[in-house]
Write a structure and sequence with these properties.
Chain lengths: ~475, ~500
């Protein structure tokens, strides 16, 4: 192994080890009930981000100097059963897609970490926030650099869990918790679709290596090593996963709900990084799209619908964070269209630009009224109304309907509840009733002792009986 | 057969039994809980010693060194093998943490004596080879929960009905099997009876009502002890796997898959924490059965890994619920209880164990779940995806329960809610095992794979259970192993 390869391996290992180390320290201090001070947590977080970003930049510089476009860093097999050809490799890839996304994650996580230090100063949940933040950061780094589909899934799951817990950060109130649950439920279904797609790809090509799955050539020149039909099947499953993670149609309902979390987490997770993780996956597997024209059409359609819905909904919201969330959706929809059209570099640049802008906007959101005041003072008059000139050409009835469509968030949550969640829950409640009847018939007493329990035994102030 | 360096099996079985006698003699003294913890700790240490000794021997199975009770511990019946070597410490650990997490105020309701007797029976069952003794032990282990239900003054009809049927099928099936050649098609009917018995004990739908009944009417501790060691799965391994043809087992796997999804859906609609736990446990244990019934090396490895992880994580999940119940009584999932501020350790542990039970990355269940999914999809490309759906639904339930119990408006209670020292130790032991097992999974997976291939090879010796596909996989594996090991042998 020559000097360059050794340097790549050492730097690559540091990039991955740093967020894992941060998570380990914060996690173990919580596990052993030894809470760290705010200063220690902030310092550790800064160091974690720095030790990920600086080696990342060094790898990029080294790659430019050597003229290579693909640097795999293999940390060996995490789990292997050689006889069954089962390998869970810890392989990370530095290429034209992963490095920009990694650096973007580091910059935004760093900014938000520094912002949160003051924003949540002396808050009861300061340590909890940074623990979830560490899970998120670790998940983002792993997802960005994943060289195998299994590793990508690990990072993907970590991002999902931390997002849901952060939405429910203000857990004394019901709404954030309900919304956290909603986000988690959508993510779990998206994860299930992703896992099924991963296993299907694994069994089609016999390997989990993303490079192998995408055929020869480094990103973006890879060619899928599967047939058109297979690409459509797997691609559709992946599209469900992407739609869930990036809040595309019809899962957009979770995005405004996610804004219940603290502003820094809204900015970094739902406005900037988390919402782009789905499209990052789409970019990573973009050679699949070229293998199937139908899949491409499906991607473009999904992007257009999502962008259209986002544009409508963002215009009629009465909450700045929600409005920004839908504005994000519009841009994410456009990015999906770009990916569908094969404009991969454009999509990547769009992701970076959009994520930075949206982070800035969301971090400024709490001071929006003050900003408006300053603007109006500077102008010496009220800000002009932002009505679109197109509105005049639309019939009034349609205008009203579009307003309702936008205000009710595209009726997406209502439709999902009515047509998917409701029937599912009703079916199992029916099974539960059948079980109750059967057990009551078999038993000489009312079988369900649990029917008689108190709703809030903790509030009575007495010991259990 | 290889011999252990110490009579671990004999001593580990007798320790809780003698401990139960000691507890009986102590009566209602205040120190009885401490004594029970000490006895369970010694038993756990003995089973760990047994595991280490067995690993050092490097054999597939081994029996005890001769001591003084050869007439009781038949050397050909009580053995430790690659399957049971890991199950024994797991079972002892489950008993230890349940006893450790028992509040002193609850010891009159949760019988420590019965728990130690159950531990004796369970360790004997897991150390027992296929024989009438195993059948007797499986039947006997159903008695302590029955006695508890009766003592609590509840109707035992549902439990009795199911367990009587279980014992009848077990005894009938084994008696019939003893009369026929196990290598002939005549073994199919007794095999079916034994399978039905094992499925009933595992709570496969529609024979699952007794589990919900036990959770409703028994103490939570007893219900956890009776269900989480997955004795039904053990019965499948010992009684059914050696004689059932692959096609039959793989057909039953669909039934287990349906149970996994059904129980996961039922867990979502429960309005009380115990019932929710009961259905999650049922769903996850059905997934273990799915892997066992796939009878492919990957599926079996996944099932054996998942078995350990389900045992660890669901016990942890259960003791958290039990600790909360012990303080404020049964928990409704209809509303939010806001216990986070008063129980920060338990809240973190609840989340960790819940996530581990659904196979979340970096926890002990992750690799087992991956292997299981791969094995299931290999055999049933579409139906196998139900494993993923069951896991996704369980994931939703786990977080929902976490939110309902620990979040919401904080209600200060008059009762001290913090974790006691023994509870903290129990939580810490399980957390470390869950995390270390998740971060360094290779040793566990390698050992479980070895056990799975040995079990599969044993099946291949019976013409009834021989499977060409599996034989090809095993042959390919052996050839590859030869290729891998060749350079090593040359260098020697």
């Amino acid at each position: 192994m020559n000097f360059t390869e050794t340097a790549f391996e050492i730097l690559g290992t540091v990039v991955v080890a740093s967020p894992v180390g941060l998570l380990a320290i914060l996690g173990l201090s919580t596990l052993f009930s030894r809470p760290l001070s705010e200063t220690s947590i902030s310092r550790l977080t800064q160091m974690g981000v720095l030790f990920t970003m600086v080696p990342g930049i060094m790898i990029l510089a080294l790659m430019l100097m050597v003229g290579t476009r693909y640097v795999p860093v293999e940390l060996g097999d995490w789990v292997t059963i050689p006889e069954q050809e089962f390998h869970f490799s810890l392989k990370f890839v530095f290429d034209r897609l992963s490095i920009p996304f990694l650096l973007l994650s580091c910059v935004l996580c760093g900014v938000v970490g520094a912002f949160t230090r003051r924003y949540l100063h002396r808050e009861e949940g300061f340590g909890r926030f940074f623990l979830y933040y560490a899970v998120f950061f670790c998940g983002m780094v792993i997802s960005s650099l994943a060289g195998t589909i299994e590793t990508l899934f690990v990072g993907w799951e970590m991002v999902g869990l931390s997002s849901a817990l952060l939405v429910a950060y203000f857990h004394q109130r019901r709404n954030p918790v309900r919304n956290g649950q909603r986000v988690w439920s959508v993510y779990r279904l998206a994860d299930a679709a992703f896992l099924i797609a991963a296993i299907a790809m694994h069994s089609m090509t016999g390997e989990g290596d993303l490079g192998g799955l995408m055929g020869s050539g480094v990103w973006p020149e890879g060619v899928a090593a599967i047939t058109s039909q297979q690409a459509f099947g797997v691609g559709t499953l992946l599209l469900i996963a992407v739609a869930g993670k990036s809040a595309l149609f019809p899962f957009s309902g979770w995005l405004p709900r996610a804004m219940e979390g603290p502003t820094p987490s809204s900015a970094i997770f739902y406005g900037a990084l988390s919402v782009h993780l789905g499209v990052y996956l789409l970019l990573r597997v973009s050679p699949l799209l070229e293998a199937s024209l139908m899949l491409q059409a499906l991607v473009i359609t999904l992007g257009l619908i999502s962008a259209g819905c986002g544009a409508l909904m963002s215009r009629v919201q009465n909450d700045v964070k929600v409005s920004l969330a839908y504005a994000s959706l519009t841009q994410v929809g456009i990015i999906v269209v770009e990916i569908g059209l094969g404009l991969r570099y454009l999509a990547l640049i769009h992701i970076i630009g959009h994520a930075c802008l949206r982070t800035m906007q969301l971090l400024r959101a709490p001071t929006l009224l003050r900003d408006y005041n300053e603007l109006e003072n500077a102008l010496g008059r009220r800000l002009p109304e932002g009505a679109s000139p197109w509105t005049r050409h639309l019939p009034e009835g349609l205008q009203g309907w579009l307003y309702r469509f936008g205000f009710d968030r595209g009726f997406m949550d209502i439709a999902l509840d009515k047509w998917a969640v409701g029937p599912f829950m009703n079916l199992f409640r029916w099974f539960d009733r059948i079980e109750r009847r059967a057990t009551n018939r078999l038993s000489s007493e009312n079988h369900r002792q649990s029917d008689r329990i108190e709703l809030h035994p903790e509030s009575t102030g007495r010991a259990a009986t | 057969m290889t011999e252990l360096h110490f009579p671990w099996i004999e001593v580990s079985i007798l320790t809780p039994l003698l401990g139960a006698v000691w507890i009986h003699l102590l009566g209602a003294r205040a120190s009885v809980l401490r004594h029970a913890i000490a006895i369970a700790s010694v038993t756990f240490a003995l089973t760990v010693g047994e595991l280490l000794d067995f690993i050092l021997l490097g054999a597939f199975e081994a029996h005890d060194r001769r001591l003084f009770l050869d007439w009781l511990f038949d050397r050909d019946i009580f053995v430790v093998d690659e399957l049971s070597a890991f199950q024994l410490p797991l079972a002892a650990l489950i008993f230890l943490v349940i006893i450790m997490s028992t509040l002193r105020t609850k010891s009159p309701r949760f019988s420590l004596k019965a728990a130690l007797i159950s531990e004796t029976l369970l360790l004997a069952t897991f150390s027992c080879r296929t024989s009438w003794t195993l059948v007797a032990l499986l039947a006997a282990s159903t008695i302590p929960p029955f006695l508890e239900l009766r003592q609590r003054g509840h109707c035992t009809r549902i439990y009795t009905l199911h367990m009587s049927l279980f014992v009848a099928l077990l005894v009938g099936g084994w008696a019939w099997l003893s009369m026929v050649d196990v290598n002939s098609p005549a073994a199919l009917i007794p095999g079916a009876l034994l399978t039905a018995a094992a499925l009933l004990r595992s709570g496969i739908v529609p024979f699952h009502l007794w589990i919900a009944d036990l959770f409703e009417k028994g103490t939570l501790g007893t219900a956890i002890l009776f269900t989480t060691p997955l004795v039904g799965a053990y019965a499948v391994m010992r009684l059914v796997l050696p004689i059932a043809p692959s096609w039959a087992l793989q057909s039953i796997a669909i039934l287990s898959l349906l149970t996994a999804v059904y129980a996961a859906g039922m867990a979502l609609v429960q309005r009380e924490a115990r019932r929710m736990f009961c259905y999650i446990m049922l769903s996850q244990s059905s997934l273990v059965l799915v892997g066992l019934e796939l009878v492919t090396p990957i599926g079996l490895t996944g099932a054996l890994c998942l078995w350990l992880s389900v045992g660890l994580s669901l016990t942890g999940f259960g003791i958290t619920l039990r600790s909360i119940e012990a303080r404020i009584s049964r928990i409704s999932l209809v509303d939010y209880h806001g216990l986070y501020r008063q129980m920060p350790i338990f809240s973190g542990f609840f989340l960790l164990t819940g996530l581990a039970s659904i196979g979340f990355p970096a926890t002990v269940g992750f690799v087992g779940m991956e292997l299981l999914i791969e094995g299931a999809v290999d055999i049933y490309p579409w139906v196998g995806t139900m494993v993923v759906i069951a896991a996704a639904l369980n994931g939703i339930t786990v977080l929902m329960a976490y939110f309902r119990i620990f979040t919401g408006r904080h209600n200060p209670t008059l009762i001290p809610m913090h974790a006691r020292r023994s509870e903290q130790v129990a939580v810490l032991i399980l957390s470390l095992l869950i995390l270390v097992g998740g971060l360094v999974p290779q040793p566990g997976v390698a050992s479980r794979y070895h056990a799975a291939t040995e079990l599969t090879r044993q099946r291949q010796r019976n013409p009834m259970t021989e499977d060409e596909t599996v034989a090809r996989i095993l042959d390919a594996g052996s050839e590859e192993q030869n290729v891998i090991t060749r350079p090593v042998s040359v260098s020697h």
